[in-house]
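Team,

Forwarding the record for the chain on the shared tracking sheet. I've put the sequence and predicted structure together so nobody has to dig through attachments.
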Amino acid sequence: MHHEHHLKSSDTIKDIVIGMSDGLTVPFALAAGLSGAVNSSGIIVTAGIAEIVAGSIAMGLGGFLAGRTEVDHYNSELKREYDEIERIPEQEKMEVKEVFADFGLSVALQDQIADEMAKDKDKWVDFMMRFELGLEKPQANRATQSALTIGASYIVGGIIPLSPYVFVPNSQVALMYSVIITLICLFIFGYLKSKVTGQPAFSGALKVLVIGALAAGAAFLMAKLING
């Protein structure tokens, strides 16, 4: 028997990817930049924690607003579809027929399906939302769940590059540990992210690693230049 294996990316996984991507990269770049300006790890830890808190709130709020926008858009289109099947049912039937025409069904069968579907307004509207507009009904509390998942993922990602500064007083030494740990985590995260999204895993991992390394390197060099 033939088995097909499809790797699906759920909304929760997408939120984790969004949060972890920025969580690993932004605090890493901030800590690297500060390491080029100060020798005290304590200052970097304080600034890093402040950034992680602010960043997680900002990212979580962004996820919440995106989720609410999705819900509002769906509800608006749902209301419009109910209105249209009341006002212009024949035109809506034509749109149903057009969908099935694309599948190669005969005109007679298209007419039969459209007439049957028109008997149940809820199923009719659901069909139009899915196949005409390509909209799926958002999950309940999607916006809140997205905000919490993105925010928590950002915190987890941000703690990783900051953790060496907690244990190593000298920022230059801590930076070396932070670079090693974070680059390894970026590679692993990029690999898993690529697997989930169906992309080439190794090249995807390298892309994430390079982006993180460039951001941190640019921040470090800029701090060095500003401080002469």
